[in-house]
Model the fold of this input.
Amino acid sequence: MAVSTGDVVVALAAGAGGEATRAPEWIKIAPRGRTATRDGRSYAFDPEALAARFNADDVKVPVDFEHGTIHLAAKGQRTDAIGWVEELAARGDGLYGRVDWLDAGRAALAARTHRYVSPTFPHDAGGNAVFLHSVALVTAPALSNMPALAGAHSQQPTPDIAMSDKIAAALGLAAGTSEAALLSAIIDLAKKADDGGDVASLQAALSTTQTELAALQAAMRKGVVDTLLDTALKEKRIVPAQRESYASLCATDAGLTQVSALLAATPPALGASGLDGKLPGEGGVKAIDPVALAAKANAYL
Done:
């Protein structure tokens, strides 16, 4: 399951003269049915199903700036919500959300620094949105006379693609070839083995390519999960005993998405003690002199 952010951008409600006058309680998050992005990709939204999933999960959806919940959290950086989607509703033209705006969100809308809404949503191979992960206020403008479409971004941070480039070179493809194209080339390579070629050589190449691809995917996921959980530990959003459990939940794309959202919405449980890195006697408690203590014991005896 993949995750897309900013694929569909919907303009906020405007007042007289086309300018936003206040933070709207209800905002349109996504259109109904299938829609295409500016680069030709296609996604579909079922408002009733998305609203039902929201109610079943019973987790409020964060509103942020420029998809910070996805991008900054994946880099181990703090990202704060500027509002919370408290309710989803299916309407004739799409999916709407009732937002409890925080001060930062209201200020941005009043200043008109961010005038558009962009959802983040996991989707299946057919581009069907599965659930709403988060919503962002963005600066990208809508297309003229359209519900407003914008570019898509990946959930994962930009990886080191050296290994995928090696795989592409081994298959005779250009550097930067997408993972989908690499897999397609691998499948074609396997089919050609049935045409009387060097079966052993082709199978070895296929096995090596699949192993390298799996290693690349595992390394990318481990890096993202380690950064996410290390940051959560540092900020005391989780305790060390919970780390392995959270890591197990991050084994799938959907799990990683939900854990990221959960940690972003979890406040730090403990403040700094002020004792980190200090030796006994440096934290305000007077250290005991063992020689003086022994002298007192002898005097008592």
